[in-house]
Amino acid sequence: IAAINQKTSCIAPVLALPLQVCAQLCRRPCYCPWVPPRCPRGSPLVLDGCGCCKICARRLGEPCDFLHVCDQSQGLVCDYSAAPTGTGATCNFEDTEEGCEVNGQVYKDGEVFQPSCKLQCRCLDGGFTCVPLCQEDVRLPTPDCPNPRRVEVPGKCCPEWICEARDQHLLRAAGTASPPLPYPCQEWGTEWSACSVTCGVGFSTRVSNQNRYCRLETQRRLCMARPCPALSAASPVVS
């Protein structure tokens, strides 16, 4: 019993004692029980801290000390961070947190950062993943904007769509014929959409490059599915 008390008194302040004193815990020759202990599921048999007798490895969250070691096959170590006096240590995962380096800057695992105003990234397991912060939308030509173009705007991070007036001036020009294109135009277009109304005059649209500049644009034309039925004389007049 005295020997056990002597061991216990050294285990408690194990961090504060030099290695020579704690080495007194390991007596030679080893005196181990004939029958090894029966360990719970998930706890393998390992050698104690002295490398003498086989014991059940401590699992995650279980108490540990110099003799009662943690299951190293699961990456567990005896964590004394919450036990400044050397008591109350528990088995915890070893802090092997990896960071990532981007443009000479090192970020912690799980840290969110922006290498530029157009990207937001996250450091994860030594690498990083990024998502764009600028919208990657596509704008088709329209009658009021026949030539949309995406440009960098001074003072703003993300590019913006603008409508050049050059093509509009060409369309308003008095010339009857336009200069030939320097390349052959392969005509392409979608089918005309259904009429916008079920009766009477409406609009139908399609996207096509069948124009003098061979440029995709949204085209509209009048359509009429069927005439609207005439109001009977008995029906009230609605203004």
TrEMBL record:
GO cellular component terms listed in the entry, alphabetical order: extracellular matrix; extracellular space; nucleus
GO molecular function: heparin binding; integrin binding
A biological process from GO: cell adhesion
Top-level taxon in the UniProt lineage: Eukaryota
SUPFAM superfamilies: FnI-like domain, Growth factor receptor domain, TSP-1 type 1 repeat
Keyword Secreted assigned: yes
Residues in the signal sequence: 1-23
Keyword terms of this UniProt record: Cell adhesion, Disulfide bond, Secreted, Signal
Main location: secreted
SMART domains the record matches: IB, TSP1, VWC
Biological function: May play an important role in modulating bone turnover. Promotes the adhesion of osteoblast cells and inhibits the binding of fibrinogen to integrin receptors. In addition, inhibits osteocalcin production.
Name this protein carries in UniProt: CCN family member 5
Species this chain originates from: Piaya cayana (Common squirrel cuckoo)
